[in-house]
What we know:
Blueprint lengths: L3 H11 L8 H35 L17 H11 L4 H28 L3 H52 L2
Helix pairs in contact: 3-5, 4-5
Amino acid sequence: xxxxxxxxxxRVKMDPSSHKMSEKQWQQAYTAYRSSRKRVAGSxxxxxxxxxxxRRTTSSSPAPRVSHKPSSIAPSNQLRNEVRLRxxxxxxxxxxxxxxxxVLGVVVLAAAVKLVYYTNIxxxxxALLDAVVWVVAVFGLRLLVHxxxxxxxxxxxxxxxxxxxxxxxxxxxx
Length: 174
C-alpha cells in the first residue's frame, strides 16, 4: 500500500464511517501511516545490521548460533504478534497498559487503607474480596480493550494479504 488512493480505499473498506473524513484528515492519516511504516522498517533494518555484525564477530566460533521460532506457537498467536508488530496503535496500547497499572495501584492502595481502618475481620475480608474483584475486572477489561484495538489492524492485515494471495494463485495458474 504505497500510494494514497490504495490507502484510502483500504481504510474505507475496513471502516465505512471513514468516508466522512475531510481531505485534510485523510492526508494526516496517510502521513501518520507512512511515518509509522518508516519507523517500523527502520527499526527492523537496524536490528538486522546489528545481528550481522554479531555474526561476523562470532564466525570464528566452532558452531554458529541458530535462532528459530518455537513451533508450539499457535497460528492465532502468530497472527496477533505479526499484527501488533506492524500496528498503527502501539501508542494507544501503551496508554491502556499504563492506565491499567495505575488503576491497579489505586485499587491496591485503597484496599490497604481499608484494611488498616476496618478492625472487624469480616468487614476487612469483604474489603479484600472487593479489591480482588476489582483487580480481576481491570485485567479482564485491559485484555478486552487490547482485542478491540487489534480489530482494525487484523482487518487491514487480512485485506492486504488476500489480494497478494489472489495474485499468487493467478500467477501460478490455479
